[in-house]
Design goal:
It comes from Streptomyces axinellae. This protein is of the alpha/beta class. The protein has a single domain (about 5-185, about 205-265), classed as Alpha-Beta Complex (2-enoyl-CoA Hydratase, Chain A, domain 1), CATH 3.90.226. It is built from ten helices and eleven strands. About 40% of the residues are buried.
Length: about 260
Amino acid sequence: MSIRTHTEDGVATVTLDRPEKHNALDLADAQALAAIWRGLRTDPDVRAAVVTGTGGRAFCTGIDRAAVSGPQAPAQPHSPYALDDPLLTIGPKANDLWIPVIAAVEGMACGGAFYLLSEAEFLIATEESAFFDPHTAYGMVSAYEAMAMAQRMPFGEVARMALMGTAERISGRRAYETGLVSELAPPGGALEAALRCARVLASYPTEAVQGTVRAVWAAGEAARAQAMAQAPALIALGNLPPERQAELFAARGRVGGRTDPVRLR
């Protein structure tokens, strides 16, 4: 399995371990993440968690395209009001987990990675990390991802990231300046910085910590739920047909991995 967990000092470290794929998630990974979060709900030894990725080049690059394209891909409902998105349940809050979760980001975090990042209490990253949303470049609507990150970023920043697609990447420094990232760590140091914070949280009375987490989330929960209720219809109306999306992905791959300039800001 490409998801690893380790518990020490009351902190569970959940690691995406597929560096050869930039920690992209296949369907089994998505199911495993959901099961891990659900399992932590009843683990009395865990009072805080950290989620990270291995390899240094990427935290997570979202869904593995091979998992959702081709003849083996799961069928989607024929309705603009329903959508089977395998990443919708990969986050801790989607699985009713209310211990504090800290994300440690090294390298790229894009697209479906935002399902995880948006459900962490706060993010720690390095200046070398890069955040971007490729959906529009491939003829896809950024709905759930943009809506989730709109709870974490200023409107103009999330709108620009979602619309600019693969042409721009937000640096760790810029993410820190806009409040998406709460702390910048030295290269290779994001995980240790996150663990340091998680150990502090794990040392506090559990009920007080989880109650505070729940209170903070309650503040924005209604707006988030109302927005995401519109996502399936927006995706159904705005996405290019899957075969056209596949052509855009393939064209990008034929020219060495990208067809457009990438600007880091």
